[in-house]
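User: Hey, quick favor. My workstation is busy. Could you predict this chain's structure for me?
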Amino acid sequence: MTSTAIVSVILGLFIVLIRGLPWVFAPVRTMEVFRKLTASAGAIRSMGVLGAALGLAMVLSAWGAASAAEKFILYLGGFILVLTLLFPVAFPGAAAAFSGVIADALEDDTPRLRGFGLIAVGIGVFFLYLGLCVL
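Assistant: No problem, here it is.
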């Protein structure tokens, strides 16, 4: 198993377990946790640093890639790295305002939250498949 496959499996598990399933099974409680996590600039910065670390791991594991799947991981990691360094780390106030607007728009929309959770589970399963079967 290559380092790119390991990073892809970890990313898939992270998406399914942390982002997808909580939104599917407990959307109201997950929204409360989301609001608490995005309430302060320090919490948003720390999430941005974790996202940047994930993006950096994706870039470093797929550096010098030859296959299309590895290049996908490389470019996606670069996008995540740039996005997390620009938005939550550099401008946490703007990120907090943006997340507040999203949370306000989805506050009482449980079916849509469950749908987003199912989409996240599908994306996570794709990354698990990519890491276990393709790479």
